[in-house]
Design a protein that fits this description.
Photosynthetic Reaction Center, Chain H, domain 2; globular; six-stranded mixed beta sheet; mainly beta; 6 strands
Length: 115
Amino acid sequence: MSDPEASGDQDQAVAWPRTPYHAPILDAAGAEFGTTESLLGDEAADIFHGLAVKLREGGRLAEVAADQVSRITLSAVHTSIDPAQVALLPDYQEERWFHLGWGGLFRKRPEWEDH
């Protein structure tokens, strides 16, 4: 199996822990509406909850739930979010990711590198 980074295939799907830092986030129509800022999940348990995303319009930090993420590649995150719904995404609330109430800490900020 070849390495997508080495082969230059930036559109090959990757697992959520390999989400690129500051990757473009695309709506259902393929338009960029923001960039990745943080992964929300537990890498050790392989549980993906979503992404903290910096929106292009206004620079607000919003949450994109895992069930809205259609595909992650080395070049972008594709979502099922309708373009008209982008402005309605909930604000990212860091404090709610520290403890979910049933024993789990489900917040992950991997050591991303700028490329």
